[in-house]
Amino acid sequence: MTTHLTARLTWHDTAWNGRLCANPDTNAACMEHEHVRALRRLDVEAPHAGCGLVDLKRVTGYLPPCQRDANAFGEDAYVICHQDPLDGRNLPSVEEDVPAFSVCPTPYRWMLESNFRDICEAENLLIPAPKNPSATWVQEDTRQRQLLERFWGKLEKNRSLVFFYCNRGNAVDDEANRLLVGVSRIAEVANPTYFGQSSAFPGRFPVWSRRVTHHYPREGVRIPYQEYLHRDLDVDGIVCRPPRDLSLPFSYVAEHLSDGQAVSALLAIMTTVERLEADRKAGRGVDGDWAGALAWLDGALDEVWSGRGAYPGIGAMLRALGCSQGIGYHATVLRQLERNGRDPWQHVKDLFEGRRQPEADYAHSLAEAILCWRKMPSRHKLIDLLVRFELTTDQIADILNEDTRKQRGILATNDAILENPYRLFEQDCGTKRSAPVSLEVIDQGMLPEGDAARFRTDPPLPPHDHRRVRATMVAVLQRAASAGDSLLPFPTLVQRAAGFFPESRRCAADAETIWSSEDRTFHEQILWFRDVPAPESWKRADANAAADGADDELAELREDLGAAKPTEGERPILRLAALKSVRRWELEIAQVIKKQVGALADLPAEGPDWRALLTVPEEEGGFGEPQTGREHAAIDEKIMALEVLYRNRLSVLTGGAGTGKTSVLRIFLRTLRALEGPRSTLLAAPTGKARVKLQTSTGRPAATIHQVLSDAGMLGPNYRILETPEKGKLSYNTVVIDESSMPSVELLAALFRAINTGAIARLIFVGDPCQLPPIGPGRPFIDMLRWLRQAHPGCVADLGTCMRTDGAGGMAVGLQLANGYRDESPPGDDMVISRVARSSTHGDLTLMTWNDHGSLLAKLDEAFAMLNITPGDAKSFDRSLGISEEEWKRSEAWQIISPTRIHPFGTGEINRVVQERYRGRELANANNANRWPRAMGDQGIVFHDKVMQRVNEPKWLPEGTEGMRFVANGEIGIVTAAWKKKPGEEKGQDKLHVNFSTQPKASYRYLKSEVEESLELAYALTVHKAQGSDFGGVIFVLPRKAQTLSRELLYTALTRYRGTLIVLAEKDTEVLERLRNPALSETARRSTCMFDLLLGDAGADVPLPPRYRPEGLVHRAEDGTPMRSKSEIIVYETLKGLGLQPLYEQRLCAPTDPDDFCLPDFTIIHGGRTWYWEHLGMLANQGYRDDWEAKEAWYARHGFRDRLLTSRDHPGGSFGAVYADEIRETARTRILGH
């Protein structure tokens, strides 16, 4: 058994090459680390960017705070200085040489006093107890030395491997908490070094880190993230994360990794290196000897398989049975037996069954395990199985007990687990203290290699064993669900399953065997397979039908060349696959929706006088009498909306920002109560912040969906959603679900299981379908809305008139810009981009551009000035947030938002910069440990910081204090007090108090230990975290590229403001124009089948005859060109049928100004002339008509009027029908000259 090492690296933009970063001022990822934030000096680093650390120290005397790992893959050598890590001691520092390919990681978990007992038991250490058990860190020098000697002493040079990783502080993946960087073999672990002596603290105190040198590049591999980023390659394809059960070993900077865990980590790295080799061969990667790296990894894998042993779970099993020294007994006694060729588990069983006496040193500890074993004869076979897997003590203890097993979500019986151990992975949801069992752990035990397969009496498992195949497909579908897909085409599933493991352990599943053999019944226990005919709507119309039946010589040529002809009348059969649980969620939602559709009986023909209710004065809850055409239109559509909500058992209230959805809901609920009395009503929202907003705006109690599930008894350990309401279903007469675009199919289906849906008189969904889709599988709101528009349009209440105006009676300019990212946008939304590109500020919208990090910060200063914040002035900054006057509601007066947390333009860096500039005095005070509490949490939160609550949690308040005694995820507030623990108070902690904008009179207390989990800095938020909130002013930082960018993200960001919107766009308006493309939709990318089969990205994998094209939410022409509407598709196909080549949304600039432009629907070049075609959809709408008239005037003003052609919808259908004959006639007459 070999012990391996994990070593956390601080992100470095030139791959830890022993030099300063090439661009230290833009390395925001490294600032995730407290020591970097505290010690980095950009004034030194920026002028010496890229300088070798040897030269840097010689010239400046400075080394960066990442000095301990900056040479991980560097060839130079330099000297670093270790500083005393403990406050108050100030021991003299000590220097240490760092040769090439070396790091100095610190095992912080081993130095935490709270872990002391567990470590001693696991390692069989006899170390004196602490003098001060409440201390955070181990204090005594002798205890430090003994613990560190054991930690570092377990590593073997030329045998142990070192795995390098980054945590959240990486520039690659916004969602990755752990990112594998590479692996090598340890060449040397240096001898310990010691701090200097101090009379105040006598003793010999060791430096906690050790210098570790490794054999790279001769042995090892580094994943070239930096090279992919610099060359703008697809870095997402090479992201390598540790398996989900390896969170602990890849934590605390330095940790041990067992052979079994090393197998999992190596397999993950091998999979990535195989992709690197494939990218290189395809010309889309970077050069490197990836084949050689794979060969080395394969050899290392053989070693760790051998070291893993046949029974890696023995130690954890013994601890679960009561032997506190189980880990140590396994490592010392049993591993030696295994090396000598003896079966270690048989040895243990001989002890258990009295055929052998326990070793004297372990006899007392083993006695408890022996007694426990003898009390559970029915579980002996299960124990025999579990020791084959490298499970934790908590996992084994939970699995052995049927009650705790169920709490983890594992419903399989002992016999079922014995028959198929992969069920542990398939069903385990984990607990708060224990990660779910991973597929990799079970797969290693079921398909061991080398010496790990010794002592096995059962036949080897074939790589294509049906149990392994199913588990792998489950893993693939789980990943797909996390990415938003509720199902996949079966070919896609098989393809992804085949690539899940490295080639040497490939799960070579045969598609026909899975689909057609007797194994299908086994698979369908937890998977859903279906043969379905391709929907009729997928059949493409004859592309030449619009050309008056002209002969298609190209079609004849295709037939001559042998192209397949679809059989007339037959539809191709599609094969689909999903997790049965996810498929059930979709069907349950669809069933509720379909049953609920219909009109309410026994309502009077004459309903409430909605117009009178809407036009009462504002102080009475109405809007007042309409004065303008826009106000009249808004009142008219609200009357129609209220009537829809009133008369239907199921209704949807939808509309963009500023259209008055919440106001309509408030008036409706108030009127309904007056008419029908105080019937039970549920106002539900998906997040805590959305709940608070809903409750405040309606004046009625509201709940989060999770609160409803808790009330029904459907929340298990770790907030896991249970199948049935253990406390019984809840009954409501009226149910309103706000922010309906946010719940996933899992959450919405759970809500419907928690309530008695048969008792609902009115079920009302409220939301904006253009916002970000749910985190998790599906898009139930979008799919429901699409189905209702087609099958029951009378259930949908659309609000289209925006009452947030620009002062001149027109729609607010920022919202006009946002409309360009809706499916049906008005003409002229493209021209908003042009107007602000020319004049910077237009109405409530300002556009500024930046080129690099420095210019971004300068533009941020300009944006602050527009919000009456003097750059660098803490007083004006405090006034803007209400700090000066203690008006805590004003903490949401303005907000910076960004698409991402990472990168220099991400929220992490912006929060740091803003805090540094405007909380400088408070940060300085926090460094004075004698008077003030230290900054708290990873982000260093201090007095007067703006913060956001990260979790839903009840909080104590003194009796008589006004407040909810509950703080919701997403609430924003100000740190209004910070207290240092009292001198001599052993168990006390520093603490701070927060007043939230939604509960300004309540001051909630947070202990220092609670801050990291509960709070984060909130000067800047990601768009996802801002969803469901709005702010007085919004500064939106918009880069050209980010992992999370989509149409929905841009729309959501642009609609978060109430007063002022400032967009800080990188370089120019290119990203604003590009994201208008319907194909760049996150919602449309998903594949779902709640009412209809809609395939997103996965549709490309479906084998179909030429006449068929998969249908999704994106409207596509026959050649695949994405467009906004079906009407545009008809125009496009008709023009193509005439032999023209229309180009979609190409920029047309004014002759004298390239920044004055519009985006015609189609640009057509024919016969040396260029024509511009606009399709007009909703001319009956006053706002739409006004926008078109303005755009038409632009064409005329710049001399394009004579080349402008139009088509329009005609009455009929949801948006009218386009008459292809009229399009054809116009094109023939004007363009073709017929």
From TrEMBL:
Keywords: ATP-binding, Helicase, Hydrolase, Nucleotide-binding. Residues 1017-1063 form the UvrD-like helicase C-terminal domain. It comes from Azospirillum brasilense. GO terms for molecular function: ATP binding; DNA helicase activity. The lineage of its organism: Bacteria, Pseudomonadati, Pseudomonadota, Alphaproteobacteria, Rhodospirillales. InterPro entries: Coronavir_polyprotein_1ab (IPR050534), P-loop_NTPase (IPR027417), UvrD-like_helicase_C (IPR027785). CDD domains: DEXSc_RecD-like, SF1_C_RecD. The keyword Hydrolase applies. This is UvrD-like helicase family protein. Gene3D superfamilies: 2.30.30.940, P-loop containing nucleotide triphosphate hydrolases.
